Amino acid sequence: MSTAIVVGGGIGGLATALALTRRGWSVEVFERAPEVAEVGSGISLWTNALRALDALGVGAAVREQAIEDVSAGIRTARGRWLSRTDVATMRARFGAPVVIHRAALLDILRAAIPDRVVRTGISVTEAGTDGSVVHSGGVATADLVVGADGIRSVVRRAVCGDVPARYAGYTAWRAVVDIDEPLTEFGETWGRGARFGMAPLADGRVYCFAVYNAPENAPGSFAEVRALFADWHHPIPALLAAADENAVLHNDIYELPPLRTFTAGRIALVGDAAHAMTPNLGQGGCQALEDAVVLARLAGKPDGLARYDRERRPRTQMIAARSARIGTIGQLSAAPLVALRDTALRITPTSVSLRAMGEILDWTC
Hints:
The protein is an alpha/beta fold. It has a domain at 3-72 and 103-165 and 256-330: FAD/NAD(P)-binding domain. The chain contains 13 helices and 19 strands. Strand 1 (3-7), helix 1 and strand 2 (26-31) form a beta-alpha-beta unit. The longest helix is centred in the last third of the chain and has 27 residues, at 304-330. The protein is globular, with a radius of gyration of 20 Å. The two termini are 24 Å apart. The model has no long low-confidence stretch (mean pLDDT 94). InterPro entries: FAD-bd, FAD/NAD-bd_sf. Residues 3-322 form the FAD-binding domain. It comes from Nocardia rhizosphaerihabitans. GO terms for molecular function: monooxygenase activity.
């Protein structure tokens, strides 16, 4: 039986462990945290990700705990629509994306994996292309080592050396909010150097995020976030007012430069360890799920890891580059450029956007 060590117990790591287990591999997941958990954040799962989840055998379980994404488009800070999503056409063309709490997605993936597979509280300090992994409990070896340990990946050093992450120039605050008033309009709002997004969750709460230009590692405070968006259109101030400050997540946004390879020896990288991207297309987690399915399909075959690299690297790097460009446009702050951007959004036909989305969403296993 082929053996694999997966370093990292996030979405990409658990999905890869599940994919390999379903193909008969003996798998161990080393997760440094004392438990696999993520709170305070939602995730959009586009139809490419749902196909991957179906291939993993958990698509139905995810849909049961998710809600169809009813994002309506992009507005200005005053509430004027810049673009409206043709939801019916999108559903007919690609199928309906869904939104789910990240913790629920992790629970579903974890529940589908045998209990013995995931080992928490294990910190990996080094990985070798020979399949060796040095960790806090000793040394382990496997036929395949999967680096699913995020943007600051330890495993990646054995593949590409030290690759510093790049700061995208903006910071994000994320929250899951209870609000008394039912919301019917969702989507994003773009201002000058700042954006706000909101999406429904199945339990009636709202996942929202606030993004604005800031120096790297600027501390900021949630009171400042509330003040920054105080005069934006309803219900943005109400959502921020309802957010629990103790449960809000604050993270600077980083990305990886394009790596020259995702594999070396017995090592393969997945998810953020391979292609950490800005969240502007909602594809970070989706691409990690694709990675898991493709890697499990190819691993163990002649030149399987080289084939994985050839299949996954061009696609993920294309999506990462596109996401970065959208972030640059969305974070424009100079008034004349913002005016040009907003005009371009208003006059761009929906068909153009749908064609561009097709390159991403038409992926199949």
